[in-house]
Amino acid sequence: LSILHFNDVYEITERKKEPVGGAARFASLMKRNIYDITKQTGERPLVVFSGDCLNPSTLSCATQGRHMIEVLDTLEVDVAVFGNHEFDFGVEHAAKCIERMTSTWLLGNVIDKLTQQNLGGGMTKHIIKRNNGLKIGLLGLVEEEWLDTLATVNREDLEFQDYVERGREVAAELRADGADLVIALTHMRWPNDIRLARMVPDIDIILGGHDHEYGVKEIDECLIIKSGSDFRNLSSVDLFIRNDGCVDVKISRYDVTREVEEDPYMLKIVERYTSVLEKSLDHCIGVVNTSLDGRFKMVRSRETNLGNFVADIMASVTRADVVLINSGTFRSDGVHSCGNFRLHDLMTILPINDCVVTIVVTGKQLLEALENGVSLVPKYEGRFPQVSGVTFGFNPGAPPGSRIVRDTLMVQGNPLDPTREYTMATKAYVARGKDGYTCLSKCRILTDPDSGPLLSTVVRNH
């Protein structure tokens, strides 16, 4: 069995830095692999995708991710698992987009209480019978952490089933259905994929997403593969089932560089969707005198100049005592060179329509918010805080909830007063308690979260 795997694709245009990616070059690489494998084995490879395509991206601001229907269908995706960003425009919108795709979408451990169905209409399991008689069982699993990030879904309307317990159940069902090989498509962080591999021996291989760095790990004879992001990487996985039932695996990594030719058909799709936006996005809105670091591994683990830049602008506009932004706000996952700063750069960094709001917090609530922000370090989680008006240190080795070093916590240069009220500028998303910031959901709101200025507009105006 041969499998082609990729995950977490946002921008369909290529970037300047190698590997440049881009849907057109990626499609060329994909088609070449499909052709070569089919010619070599006599059977087409299985194409699978591990979530996140409808958002966030510059184009999604205009299409709400609908352009990805045509893109994924052109890539001939067979099976996929939902990612958290599939729901950025609502559950109903996600379900409609998925219905229009030719691929089968899985999500077997989150129940929508409103419908009593799997969230988004995802299937629990799927079996594919190959021409050689091999039966492949697939299941889709996600982690609980990203349920807190869903801006359009009330967490109370969702029933989460532990991915290990659910994985055991569904994998056993697939084995009972005659599956020779069980593959889990997941959209969760490495530690959770590792736990799944250790705890569910019926799963032969995990093809994951959510993390954006390419990686392969073997845990207790179960392989976990994550294939990068943004059309920059592709994995070819060849599996051989021996007579004793053991599985031999060969993994080939492909990087989408400029040496890969663009596929003409996909290039037309890309040009059609991007031509309308190109002229306006190329407009220079300012000049920056230093590189701005928006790499996920940086902005989701420490103070960065990009985080400071945006947070300080929010402080200037709102005149709040404190600014707190969840680092999942910053979507570019790259370094932005000094020089002309174009509208395209801004929309790459801040593609999501986030409204700026001002709320009133007590010192105690501010401390709770910061504790939440650093609670999952060293995972590169989007809840990590970028701030202005407040300084603090934290110990990542301390228990979650007790990581902030209290003596370092200062607001406007003064020690935090737990009983005092402070004004905080943040995003409506955070103020509603998303990304684990539940301590802020009951705070008094000074500005309307549904009609406040967009964060990208605030930065552009600055």
From TrEMBL:
Residue ranges annotated for the 5'-Nucleotidase C-terminal domain, each copy included: 294-441
Residue stretches making up the Calcineurin-like phosphoesterase domain: 2-214
Family, as annotated: Belongs to the 5'-nucleotidase family.
Keywords: Hydrolase, Nucleotide-binding, Signal
GO MF, one example: hydrolase activity
GO aspect biological process, one term: nucleotide catabolic process
The UniProt record lists the keyword Hydrolase: yes
Coiled-coil parts of chain: none
Keyword DNA-binding appears in the UniProt entry: no
Pfam families tied to this protein: 5_nucleotid_C, Metallophos
Origin superkingdom: Eukaryota
Species, as recorded: Ciona intestinalis (Transparent sea squirt)
Family matches, as Gene3D superfamilies: 3.60.21.10, 5'-Nucleotidase, C-terminal domain
InterPro entries: 5'-Nucleotdase_C, 5'-Nucleotdase_C_sf, 5_nucleotidase/apyrase, Calcineurin-like_PHP, CG11883_N, Metallo-depent_PP-like
Name of the protein: 5'-Nucleotidase C-terminal domain-containing protein
